[in-house]
Write a structure and sequence with these properties.
By secondary structure, the protein is α/β, with parallel strands linked by helices. It has ten helices and 20 strands.
């Protein structure tokens, strides 16, 4: 991956987007009804998307799906012969299907919140070359419905958003234009983790610009701050009576000057587990759910290392209800520890192109969590190339889920993308 100097641009004015639009009606049926009618068994988000060759610039193409199985007519069906929905109708219905329910009685316990997580995101280097040609909204054309549907959508933003700063001396440096941020917000992103090994690629000035740009767009951020207290402070949001605290920590910090310290802007590091654990314990006292996003592990390794597993368990022991990791640039497995889910790495979501197939595989991880601190996990399989993630076809998705089952710790992923304990 090559570093490059970006052209100066003026940020666009804040854009807003309206999430959670009502389902459209197709032929007198809601999209969810069409999906159930067309598929008849567990709803999947998979849509058929052909693969492109490495480094090729992928373009949006019509979505096809595998033919649904033959089904018996239901009691509510009309007397007319069963009519198959078109592939386009079926694909739209699949994408519009709801995030899985955490429990049948969650509403009685005070509500449920629906979260979606994606892996590492940059809009720099080769990605920016594509965006300047095709538009800054190009990455989201095939996944926007999935990103805008949940109550909160969360990403690991692994790049500063700035036109200024001093480039750091490291192998790879990234810097993304402020022009990329309004479409990112419009696609549905609400919260980003900034505790990673690229957010200060252009120094404290670049990080401060990133914070200011995110604040201007109304995107909340965790994992950085001026001083330890601010860096380890959670973002707290509330939906339907469920209060959630989000944290961001990094165990990949290029040099000591990047770490937050008294009066010093920097990232919340987790080489020392005590500050994160203390912050989680404090948040647990007032939040219904505690979510930790961690930057850790070995790049392109299928399996979490000892530090990842140790830290994830410590976070949960301290009160975390869900742990989601990034940095390896490939998918790693899942583990349930004391009834809580750990996703060790979600891989890349929007990142520079390379010739390693495993870096093209990722998921949108959907978590439906209730106030009783339980979460159900569902995965939407995604192929990400040339700056545009898109839903996988059924066959490729099934292969990914099988591989994730093999590398998970006491967990499995079924053909519908549901994660469960073995």
């Amino acid at each position: 991956m090559e570093s490059r100097q970006e052209r100066h641009r003026k940020p666009k004015k804040e854009r807003t987007s309206t999430k959670k639009a009502p389902l459209k009606v197709i032929g007198g049926l809601t999209l969810a009804a069409v999906a159930c009618f067309a598929i008849g068994i567990g709803i999947s988000h998979w849509s058929n998307q052909s693969k492109s060759t490495p480094d090729a610039e992928s373009a949006a193409s019509p979505v096809a799906v595998a033919s649904p199985p033959t089904m018996k007519p239901t009691a509510t069906a009309s007397a007319q012969p069963t009519v198959k929905p078109s592939p386009e109708q079926t694909a739209k219905a699949i994408i519009a299907s709801p995030v899985p329910t955490a429990s049948d009685t969650s509403s009685a316990r005070g509500g449920q919140v629906k979260l979606s997580f994606v892996g590492d995101v940059i809009m720099a280097s080769k990605v920016e070359d594509i965006l300047t040609q095709k538009g800054y909204d190009y990455p989201y054309l095939q996944v926007k419905d999935l990103l805008s549907k949940p109550d909160f959508t969360i990403a690991n933003l692994e790049t500063p958003i700035t036109n200024r700063g001093t480039v750091q001396k490291k192998d790879y440096v990234y810097r993304s234009s402020p022009l990329a941020l309004p479409p990112f917000k419009a696609a549905g992103f609400d919260i980003v983790n900034l505790a990673n090994n690229h957010v200060m690629d252009y120094g404290p000035e670049g990080l401060q610009d990133t914070i200011d740009a995110l604040d201007q767009e109304g995107i909340q951020h965790v994992g950085v701050g001026k001083g330890v207290e601010e860096a380890y402070k959670p973002v707290i949001v509330e939906k339907d009576g469920v209060k959630i605290a989000f944290f961001g920590f990094s165990r990949v910090v290029p040099e000591a000057s990047w770490k937050a310290a008294a009066g010093h802007l920097g990232v919340a590091e987790t080489y020392n587990y005590k500050p994160p654990v203390e912050a989680i314990e404090k948040a647990k006292a007032s939040a219904d759910l505690v979510v930790v996003m961690a930057h850790w592990g070995v790049e392109r390794s299928d399996n979490p290392d000892k530090n990842q597993k140790d830290l994830a368990h410590r976070y949960i022991d301290a009160g975390a209800d869900l742990v989601v990791g990034g940095h390896p640039h490939v998918m790693q497995g899942f583990e349930q520890y004391k009834g809580k889910w750990i996703a060790y790495s979600l891989g890349n979501f929007i990142f520079t192109t390379n010739d390693t197939p495993k870096t093209w595989e990722t998921v949108i991880m959907e978590a439906a969590c209730s106030k009783d601190k339980s979460c159900n996990i569902h995965l939407v399989p995604i192929i990400t190339k040339s700056a545009q993630p898109a839903p996988m076809n059924f066959e490729d998705g099934a292969k990914l889920f099988e591989r994730l089952t093999q590398i998970s710790i006491g967990a499995r992923v079924d053909n519908q993308g549901n994660v469960s304990k073995k």
